[in-house]
Specification:
alpha+beta; Glutaredoxin; Glutathione S-transferase Yfyf (Class Pi), Chain A, domain 2; 2 domains; four-stranded mixed beta sheet; 7 helices; globular; binds glutathione
């Protein structure tokens, strides 16, 4: 296997944490996103969507999308389970991971990509250029702040997002909370359960990945 990574980007970090929790070694190559390597002909052959992470399998298959990569790694390296144990847990992990992607990470990307100078003309990932829409900066911020309230309510009375087990949902939410800092969004004092959870998951060695 070969892992196409970018040390500074949030999406591949989700996979790096997943790999660290599994205790496996996957050789990684860094893709220079700031330099536009993802838009070049060589990388387009690997992923026509021009994004990282990508996991290259030994038969040459390229897996893109964080969830697809984690799903594959969970099948190949089942322990420790990071996508849930029972049918209900597995469904809840998919459910929360989907919510975190669409209401959390996408909201933050909206804020960041429509504001940052370096993202002018690159407001969306992919091979096609999109201009920034300044109105989306505040909307994305508001969406994420409201979503943190939902996470806080979900965490009332549970250690992790899906009950008492650490899962991909926690990994995705941790990466989202750290990505939020890029837009100077932090967890306010009123969200006591979210703060408690953030300290817990940030203290895991895998959070350094
Ligand atoms: N839905 C994708 C999102 C991947 C993504 O957005 N990756 C970003 C880095 S966080 C990227 O490759 N950006 C390239 C660019 O900005 O051109 C996934 O789950 O893997």
């Amino acid at each position: 296997m070969k892992f196409y990574d970018c040390k500074t980007a949030p999406s591949p970090r989700r996979v790096r944490i997943f790999i660290a929790e599994k205790g496996i070694e996957v050789p990684a190559v860094q893709v220079d996103l700031a330099g536009g390597e993802q838009l070049g002909a060589a990388f387009k052959k690997i992923n026509q969507d021009c994004t990282v992470p990508v996991l290259e399998l030994d038969d040459g298959t390229h897996l893109t999308e964080v969830f697809a990569i984690c799903h594959y790694l969970e099948e190949k390296f089942p322990e420790p389970a990071l996508l849930g144990g029972s049918a209900t847990e597995r469904a809840l992990v998919v459910m929360w991971n989907t919510k975190i992607e669409s209401n959390g990470l996408a909201a933050l990307a909206e804020t960041f990509r429509n504001r940052a100078k370096g993202m002018q003309g690159r407001a969306l990932t992919g091979p096609d250029d999109y201009e920034q829409i300044p109105e989306l900066v505040d909307r994305g911020r508001r969406r994420f702040e409201l979503f943190m309230g939902k996470l806080d309510r979900q965490l009332q009375g549970t250690e992790y997002i899906v009950g008492d087990i650490f899962t991909l949902a926690d990994i995705s939410a941790l990466v989202a909370c750290d990505f939020a800092a890029w837009s100077r969004i932090s967890i306010d004092d009123a969200k006591a359960d979210l703060r408690r959870w953030y300290q817990l998951v940030s203290a895991r060695p895998s959070a350094q990945a």
